Fold this protein.
Amino acid sequence: MILSRESAASAIRIAGPADAGALARLAEACFRATFDASNAAAHMQAHCRASYGETIQAAEIADPGRINLVCEEAGRLVGYAQLRWPRPPDCVPARDAGEIQRFYLLPDWHGRGLAQALMRASLQSLARRGLRGVWLGVWEHNPRALAFYRKFGFEAVGEQVFLLGNDPQRDLVMYRTLATG
């Protein structure tokens, strides 16, 4: 199901079972491109081993408690967002809030408007579920992501620990309301 078509060659759509391998490779490549330079190799390797792989992504795609949106450009996955709706942390003002658990584009696709389109599709997908708010965790040392989320109306409401391998890191919890109706 195509949610958005940005050009004749690009689309944002919901991932299906056939995407598991490509999504696993994309997810790890995006994570490494974003965080490799700032973190110890052993912690990165442990996180990637535990979080990415075709079997892991296949299970996440099949999970009815998640939606995986992928950005496809000329048949190649270049970005993705993973949405879910667990009980939010206590600092989130709305109990009926969804989470943007992952939101990444390959570096070559930054600055082309695709991230904005993916964020709009993510917010619309969560609003269609009847959720009133959305939250996410973002590493305190990721200024590009912090600025991007602020442009979309997210505000810091708390913090949480993100365990990267064995390295506990501080994520800011950011929140915004969703348009209803």
